[in-house]
Amino acid sequence: MSKKIFIDFKRCIACKACEVACEMEHGEARIRVFEFPDLTSVAFNCRHCEKAPCMEVCPVNALSKDDDGAVVLDPLKCIGCLMCGLACPFGIPKIDEYNKIMDKCDLCAHRRAEGKLPACVSACPTEALKYGDINDVLWAREGKIVAELKDIGDRTNVLEAYLIR
Amino acid sequence: MAEKLVPVVCPWCSVGCRFYIVNVNGYPKKIEFDYEHDTRNHGKLCPKGVAAFQYLRHPDRLKRPLKRVGERGEGKFVEISWEEAIKEIAQKLKEIKEKYGPEALAFLGSERCSIEENYVLQKLARALGTNNIEYVCRMCQSTAVAGKGMVLGHPGLTNPFEDILKAKVIVLWGYNPAATNPVFFGQYIEKAILDNGAKLIVVDPRKTKTAKYADIHIQPYPGTDLAVALAMLNVIITEELYDKDFVAERTEGFEELAKTVEKYTPEWAEKVSGVPAELIRKAAITFATAGTAALLTNEGVNQHANGTRTVMAITEMMVLCGYFGKEGVMSGAIPGAHNGMGAGLMGIGPHELPGRFPLHAEEHKRRIEEAWGFKIPEKPGITYVEMIDAILEGKLKALYVMGTNPAKALPNLKKAEEAFKNIEFLVVQDIFLTETAKYADIVLPAAAWFEKDGTAISFERRVQRSFKAADAPGEAKPDWEILVMLAKELGFGEYFNYSDADDILREINRIIPPLAGATPERLKKNLKGCMIPCPDENTEVPRLFVQGFLTPNGKAQLIPVEYKEPGEVPDEEYPFWLTNYRLVGHFHTGTMSHRSKSLSKRWPEEYIEINENDAKRLGIKDGDLVRVETRRAALVFKAKVTPHIREGVVAAPWHWDFNYLTKDVLDEYAKMPELKTAACRISKVEG
């Protein structure tokens, strides 16, 4: 099944350890932390979409899915046409102006090959970034909420705890 | 390409995180996360930890000894040989000692160096006949050490990190761990709050990343925390929320404390601190009725001229509620640097022997003198900030600085710079040409933390070994090695017979009882280390004060505390409260972090936070340049207009030039300077 980075943004403290770790591995940070005036912060990287628009529009088939379901770029095929950047709803693929090709997160393919976690996930001190089979991550979250529902038994508290906070 | 993973302890804050340096033929290529060992950080790191390999190979690294050829402070030097440098230093120290006596010499140790190196430094100072030996604990935790020392008998963290997971209420007072200890925050505090439902009370004039998670956020004027603490004591006592059995069995002085805080009502505290009385009441009740609570304080409490009193009052809240000696409770001091606790234990203090025994503890003194083979001087030394006055008065003639940067860290920097310009002889031993080094007569190139073996003690009281993971650049040498060279040149060779860090640690095992069991063999075998006190190789102490406190009679001392203002408060002329804070991506004076590419890129410059209503009144918009003036100096900052700081207070990160603004007034108990509060006025820079 596909593995992804799940972002639990209420845990994020905008420390940017993920950015620095990504920069260490790839020379440029491919994950970015966005901070909002109300102190909310969200670390954001490529979502490795199930139906990735970037893959659909690439004229030279430089983008493909690897065994873990990560959308990866073949730098030898890429012609730097920017179509993937235009098609991506998040504007994730960036142009590497020095090498004249695109650059995007590959979920740390070289680290996964050695059985390690992506660098940003390895670093994240608050576990706002979780890596794994996406269904497992979602099941775990669902299970936690359901367990609390059972415990509390009072719906208003649940709403308060999870919607208003 | 021989790639080796070398296990190291993180060289920044005092959480005690472990990771690997990827060593390629002596070159530190990058870090690698340690998910294999049982570590306190569970493999996780903050941005500084991840970037920790970057400053090592910065082109500014000192590679050869330097001798000053220009004016002091100008930074003009020529390279000289090690032999020349050591000879010259030894000769000057001897001359000054002969001419003015040993009390004209002073030494500064460092929380950035290993316990072994600090041990050797204080031993060398004492061999020369002076107790003028200090380190930055004076400006960091000295008030916590004094305050907690008087009340509990020991300032150390009472419980291992995981105990906070079971706390029902967590109070973070003048402490923003989301920025200063992100791994401790994420792996322990945040889990307690988000996963286990702990309530969080934050006391801080700014709405920090930590305060984002707070159920109750108290925003006093900087340095008026003491008023809030006294009012909380008042509520806990008058509403009888304290643990009566605990107070009766394990404390002394309750009646007098109750009488003293009677007048300090929440309504009184509201007038002083600007915090609504009801909020103080709510916080006190939440804390006292929690059942188990953690109360952690840091620089927002410590770095004030009323710091010791504030620490005492806050610690007494813990005592009244009996939050000691079980799971789910925690309190203690949190040094800024990775070896803050370790350096102090080595006796790097003007009134302290190795092991942090007082200088007049005859029995220990005799024991150490016997082991060393020479006498320890009688006369107590001069404290850190008072050294500046001593230099200006001509009492101190020579200063030997190891791995610390007073010319940026001291309060009232103009005065400090004056002192460094006028001292007779200054030696600085560091990894970069720091602001202090620019004034030095001789600069010695030291190996950085990853370029040598060494031991550090984290704020959890955990002793850990870090291993040599890279070669030092040029001719740089480990600090202990430089000190041994100097000791030999001074004719003390017989007392300094060490060939590696293990030799020194074995001597420490013999001299300092709480470290007797932290042997090189144990620390190499077990990377997780051990929690002091460890009297022998098989023991450690995870929880303090389970049976009794470490006061002379084993009881907590509820010393009555009266209110005192911080070192400077606003008036008509200087109407704003000025305070400072740390950024997650920088460290103290920035010697290392400003030279780490990934950090300086993300946190490039200083700025000043100003409340949106104050800004509107003064016609200041976000991004405008503003002139911030105190009675000592004026600086220009970029304004950051925000709702996240209380009205009447302005705040800036201190990793740049902030300390020109601060005042060198001292705490009466601990000689801590007022680093966190100053009165200032603000004006928009036109043009």
TrEMBL record, chain A:
GO terms for molecular function: 4 iron, 4 sulfur cluster binding; metal ion binding; oxidoreductase activity. It holds the Pfam family Fer4_11. Residues 3-32, 35-68, 69-98 form the 4Fe-4S ferredoxin-type domain. InterPro entries: 4Fe4S_Fe-S-bd (IPR017896), 4Fe4S_Fe_S_CS (IPR017900), ET_IronSulfur_Cluster-Binding (IPR050954). The keyword Hydrolase does not apply. Keywords: 4Fe-4S, Iron, Iron-sulfur, Metal-binding. Gene3D superfamilies: 3.30.70.20. This is Oxidoreductase iron-sulfur protein. It comes from Thermococcus onnurineus (strain NA1).
